[in-house]
Amino acid sequence: QAKSRGRNRYSHYLPCLTTAARERFELERSLRRAIAQEELSLVFQPLVELPAQRVVGAEVLLRWHSAEHGDVSPVRFIPLAEDSGLIVPIGAWVLHQACRQGRLWLDQGLPLETLAVNLSPVQFMHHDVVALVREALAHSGFPAHALELEITEGALVQQVARATDTLKALCDMGVRVSVDDFGTGYSSLAYLRRFALHKLKIDRSFMQGVPVERAESGLVQGILDLGHKLGMCVLAEGVEQQAQLDWLVAAGCDQIQGYLISRPLPAQDYVEWWTARLSELRAD
Ligand code: C2E
Ligand code: MG
Ligand code: MG
Ligand code: MG
C-alpha cells in the first residue's frame, strides 16, 4: 500500500518537475539571445540624501522584456543567469551601458554623484571584475569616483584573500563598493572591518516594521550606529511611507531609496523626474 501511494505521489510530481525544468530551459535559451535581440534595458531608481532629500544619483536595475516570455523579473532571471554563466556577458553589458548613460548625463549637466551598479557574486569571485570595471570606465569616460558597485555579503566572505585584492584594486581606482541587502546574509561582521567598504544598504525587509515595531526599528537603528561607528554611509532600501522617512531622518540615516521617492525609471523618465524635482526645489 505504501508502495502504491509512493508511486502515486511520484507520478503526480514528475510532470510538475519536468514542466518547471522545461520552463527553466526555455527561459535560459531566450536569455542567451536577450542581449543580441536588444531585449535588455536599464532602469534607474533615485538615491536621496537625508535630511534634505537631495538626489545624489541612482541605482541601475536590469529589465528584461522577452519576446517569448514577456516581462521577466530580475528576481527570476538573475539566478538563472548566474547558474548558466550568462551573468558574465550580461553583467558586462550592464556595466558598460550604465557608464555610457552616466557619461551622457554628466555631459548634459546633470549633477550625478553616484551611479550604483549591482555586481553578482559570480562575477565578483570568478571573473576579472577589476579589468571589466577599468574597461567600462575607459570606454565611456565615466569618472571612477561616481561609480559605486553593490555586492552582497556572501561575495565578500567566500574567498577572503581574493575579495581583499579585488576591493583594494577597485579602491585604488577610486571606485566605491557598498554592501547590498545588508543584514540578510552572513552573520559574521568581521569582514566589515577587514574591507574598505563605503556604504551599507539595509535590506528592505527590515523597513517593513519601521517605525511601528520596536524590535525592527531597533535593528535598523543598530545597523545605522554600527555603520557610522565604522565610518560608513548607511542607506535604507524599500522606503515606502512618509512615517518611515521621518523616523529615518530622526535616526540619522544618510540616504534612502524606495517607492516613496520614486520607482525605478527608464533613462528618459529619470531625467524628467530629476529636472522637475530640481525646479521644485528652486521654487521653494
Ligand atoms: P537590489 O539590488 O536589492 O535592488 C533593489 C530592489 O528593490 C529592486 O528590485 C527595486 O525595484 C526594489 N525596490 C526599490 N524600492 C522599493 C520599495 O520601496 N518597495 C519594494 N517593494 N521594492 C522596492 P528589482 O529591480 O526587481 O531587482 C531585484 C534584484 O535583482 C536586485 O535587488 C538585485 O539583486 C538583482 N538585480 C537587478 N538588476 C541587476 C543587475 O544589473 N545585476 C545583478 N547582478 N543583479 C541585479
Ligand atoms: Mg542593489
Ligand atoms: Mg539592495
Ligand atoms: Mg534588496
TrEMBL record:
Subcellular location as annotated: Cell inner membrane
Residue span, EAL domain: 24-278
Name of the protein in question: Diguanylate cyclase (GGDEF) domain-containing protein
Range of the intact protein held here: 324 to 607 of 607
